[in-house]
Amino acid sequence: MAEAETTINITQKGSVTASTARPDGPVIEVRNPGTGEIVGAVPDSDADAVTAAARRLREHQRDWEAIGPAGRKEWLLKLQDWLIDNTQTLGDVVQSETGKPRVDALIDPRFSIDLIGYYARRAEKFLADDHPAPHSPLGRVKKLTTVYRPYPVVGIITPWNFPLAMPALDVIPALAAGAAVLLKPSEVTPLSALELARGWAEIGAPPIFEVITGGGATGSAVVAVSDYVQFTGSTATGRKIAAACAERLVPYSLELGGKDPAIVLADADIDRAAHGITFGGLFNSGQVCISVERVYVEAPVYDEFVAKLTANVKALRQGLDGPEGAHDVGALANESQVEIVQRHVDEAVAAGATVLTGGKRTGVGTLFEPTVLVDVDHTMSCVTEETFGPTLPVIKVADEAQAVRLANDSRYGLSASVWTGDKKRGERVARALEAGAVNVNDVFSNLFNFALPMGGWGESGVGARWGGADGVRKYCRRQAITVPILPTQQRELIWFPYDPSKLRLAFGAMRAAGARGLRRVGISGTATTQGVAK
Ligand code: NAD
């Protein structure tokens, strides 16, 4: 659970969690980026605290594994109830440390609730032993079983853009798999993750989930004690984690940055494309790994699309407070994000781009105006680097082929969208794109379908989260068990001492099962001019 001395002091929306004494030792202060107000302070945990947490988790993990998926389902569904009962409070906490509008803040608990339902109910089926058919008749003498046994301690390290959902999206499948979880949330937004730990404690669940707060050094210490590392964050940090895991020979999965393209083809419903791309690029102020970050539009509809997109973006309501639905776009997470967004806009303008709307901060906290950029080319940082902010650079293309070529011209490959009136064409273009997910006539749709894998190609990641059974099996070591079906002899044919006649029989049977044509019985065929044996 969260360390008892953690201070959480939410003032923006009234008192949420009673404050206790400021933690002893080094602390990290948490600010609301919209107002600059300090909303909490958490321990900056050192490597000893991380090691101690991992030791505690290991002590209890075997019991958690032993209760099986059906037992774990009960606890996960209790956590789901807790999330439902506390949704508004959790929204307060998320809002307090992110400066998101109310709707965006509430997405964190709501999304987590949906995911718990999926994995809590299906884990039993996903983790059931497999009995694969033997690859050859010779294997029929054994019962074959694949068993899914969890990694004891899964370390999960998360970023700040969805401070409750981002942790929950990986914590839930790992817990469902039977692992114990050590979660290190972003130092920018640790309070929401601590709420998840509070929920786990309040439902009285077994002590197999702990949150440890701190910065990069704490994250490194988590990597050093975990049996599997699930990381979400920047590509730069992902590289360091991959190297550290390689050194320890522990497996990992990395969900990293993106520069997602949207392709608008001339036969598209331009109104839908303009609305979808406005949302896809500017939801959560563009701080979504799968935000639309660059738009390619076929020449015949370019002017119409740009006019509609700009009108949509100008109409957005930006602000911090207010009830659900009062504002569409809120704050950026911190000053560093503002600096990146401003730099991308300024560099583009200096190189000849035009700002059609937005382009600067609003003057309130870290709020940055939703921005549309045109006259953009593929050398500009706003097209080549991840912005993670509220900008939409739009590029005119001659045709579909050029759009696909430019969309694939990136070191990232997280997701993409294709907008077209022809669904078959959309699917064909999707298959030509180098991206882990492609949505036709939609944005983020893959994210709301847990049966699909969510993973990046290229520098956007290694491995994937979710994807049905894979989402829990990834947190498991697979164990192969063979048990004889038929009565056994004293010795198998190929055991010592080697006996040429028995070996001939054994290897002859293997060749008969695996080879083709006359080679099955040891007669070589003749190679044809195509090199195919008769
Ligand atoms: P970040 O890489 O700076 O930090 C992420 C986490 O890693 C934080 O908890 C941080 O404390 C920790 N960390 C930093 N150095 C570490 C180290 N050496 N060892 C271990 N842990 C360390 O990323 P960020 O700025 O918090 O998040 C923004 C990035 O996250 C963007 O690039 C975004 O695209 C990416 N992201 C990806 C996905 C996805 O699913 N692909 C989802 C959300 C965000």
From TrEMBL:
- Region (Disordered) location: 1-27
Keywords from the named record: Oxidoreductase
Name the domain of life. Bacteria
* Keyword Oxidoreductase annotated: yes
Q: Which residue ranges does the record assign to the Aldehyde dehydrogenase domain?
A: 27-480
The record's annotation in Gene3D superfamilies points to:
Aldehyde Dehydrogenase, Chain A, domain 1, Aldehyde Dehydrogenase, Chain A, domain 2
InterPro entries from the entry? Ald_DH/histidinol_DH, Ald_DH_C, Ald_DH_CS_GLU, Ald_DH_N, Aldehyde_DH_dom, Aldehyde_DH_NAD(P)
A Pfam family found in this protein is Aldedh
Q: Which residues form the signal peptide?
A: none
Residues at the catalytic site: E255
Feature: compositional bias, Polar residues: 1-20
Alphabetical list of PANTHER family matching this protein:
ALDEHYDE DEHYDROGENASE-RELATED
- UniProt similarity note: Belongs to the aldehyde dehydrogenase family.
Q: What is this protein called?
A: Aldehyde dehydrogenase
Which organism was this protein described from? Nocardia callitridis
